[in-house]
Amino acid sequence: MNKPESLVPRYSHKDYKSAVKPIWCPGCGHFGVESSLFRALAYLELPPERVAVVSGIGCSSRIPAYTQCYGFHGVHGRAPAVATGLKLARPELTVIVTSGDGDAFSIGGNHFIHACRRNVDMTLLVMDNEVYGMTKGQPSPTTPADWDSKIAPGGTGVNPFAPLAVALASGANFIARGFSGDPNGVAHLLVEAIQHPGFSFVQVLSPCITYRPEERFWKKTVHPSSVEPTRDPAVAGHRLLSDDGFTTGIFYLGNRPCYTATVDTSNHDLSAIEEDLAL
Amino acid sequence: MNQAISTLDAFLTHAHELEREAVERYEDLAEQMEVHNKPELAELFRKMAAIEQQHVDKVEGLAGGQPRTFAPWDYQWQTPESPESIPVGQGHYRMNPHQALSLVLACEERAEAFFANVAENTSDPAVRESALQFAAEEREHAELLKVWLARYPEPKADWWQDLDDPISQE
User: Fold this and answer.
1) What's the CATH number for A20-277?
2) Confidence check on the interface: ipTM exceeds 0.95, yes or no
3) Least CA distance to A38: which residue of chain B?
4) Is the dihedral of CA B10, B15, B16, B21 positive or negative?
């Protein structure tokens, strides 16, 4: 792991936190994820103005407002597309996409797959609480089939999506899972993900205490991986397909070359386009 | 895991991070309570943040400035986070002062246990002396919190029930 050499840290949590107060429910796992993200950025000594946080829609997607980094609160499910354009145009920026299980795997399912496939150098951080929290508790693509609620009596009966396995099959270059109740562990995963070239996908199990109060017990269910990360997609695939969904750690470290812009945009004059678009 | 912290430098680094993260978490919780219109709890958490900030200042005084830091995952905590921070997931918008104080008391007790453990396991007399002093301070706070706690009624059995619940899940 590449760590800048300095005894006294240049940045702390406060350097990345904005003055906007989060409106998440107290006890929400997303507070832990936000803290992990800031710890990771501070550890990497990334100046806030060199980081862009791009999101879609949902509770998790509010993070751009809560950070001093550049932020873009985008269209539902389309954050990877916005982030792809940004990274190709401004490759010097560290680009982080923050999303949720509904935003990334349902509304943005297609974008998720193709972002993995393109392998642009950015990190997708999905805060997975297995429910649509912002719209008051509907089952999401990762909700267990038998989760009983007033909205889905008896459960949906539909098998949950397997995001890590889909990411592997689609070509993601780094695949990991963390738990929001372990902010230091998630910070460690994010540091690795940001530093790994290509498209990195980190799923963080992040309890929704309001609509899925039983998820408080995830802290007793999650368990660290007992094996080292693999560079072999076949081994990673076997592990992911036989996993219980609560194993934390890095599952896959790929070595595919990143997709980079093939057109040099530095010499293009945008004024003509601006004139065309002027009302 | 026993903390075998063998230098005063490493000890002060741990003590500083423990107190700094406590300030950070109390400030976060105060903001959360303000957002959810719980001014009494917001005031409590702000007060706790101010108390812990005094400890941060004290450690910086002992260290002659801000101590060096470790990577977040390299600190020798026995808990997922530093022991004096209220764990992520413990807050609730319907909790009452008794519950909030119970969380704060648990933080002080974990911090005391941490410092006592360091004192017990270190081979360095200077570390032992400082760790015992810090443990005694945390114990003092815990005793004070127990007095405060007795002033507030325990929550009712259905404390989490919200008459204006967004949607019922039963």
Assistant:
1) 3.40.50.970
2) no
3) B72
4) positive
Q: Checking DSSP bridges between strand A122-128 and strand A174-179, what pairing results, if any? A: unpaired
Q: Which long-range contacts (CB under 8 A, 24 or more apart) does B25-33 make?
A: B25/B85, B25/B86, B26/B52, B26/B86, B28/A31, B28/A35, B29/A26, B29/B86, B29/B91, B31/A21, B31/A22, B32/A21, B32/A22, B32/A24, B32/A26, B32/A31, B32/B91, B32/B93, B33/A26
Please measure the distance between the N-terminal and C-terminal CA atoms of chain A and give it in whole angstroms: 50
- The phi-psi region of residue A219 (left if phi > 0; otherwise alpha if psi is between -120 and 50; otherwise beta) is alpha
Decide: pTM greater than 0.90: yes
| pLDDT tens profile A33-54 | 999 999 999 999 999 999 999 9
Q: Do B47 and A151 form a contact (C-beta atoms < 8 A)?
A: no
Q: Are A209 and B32 inside 8 Å of each other by CB? A: no
What backbone torsions phi and psi does residue A71 show, to the nearest 5 degrees? Answer: -140, 150
Residue A84 main-chain phi, psi, to 5 deg: -60, -50
Q: A207 touching B, CB under 8 A? A: yes
Of all residues in chain B, the one with the smallest CA distance to A215 is: B89
Q: Are A55 and A79 in contact (CB under 8 A)?
A: yes
The structure tokens 């036989």 sit at A242
- In sequence order, what are the beta bridge partners of A128? A205
Task: Give B25-68 pLDDT, tens digit per residue.
Answer: 999 999 999 999 899 999 999 999 999 999 999 999 999 999 98
- Give me the domains of chain B, ranges plus CATH numbers: 8-150 (1.20.1260.10)
Mutate to test the interface with A, among B88, B160, B162, B165 (most CBs of A within 10 A): B88
Q: Tell me if A110 sits within 8 A of A89, measured CB to CB.
A: no
Q: Are B34 and A21 in contact (CB under 8 A)?
A: yes
Rg (CA), chain A: 19
CB B76 within 8 A of CB B121: no
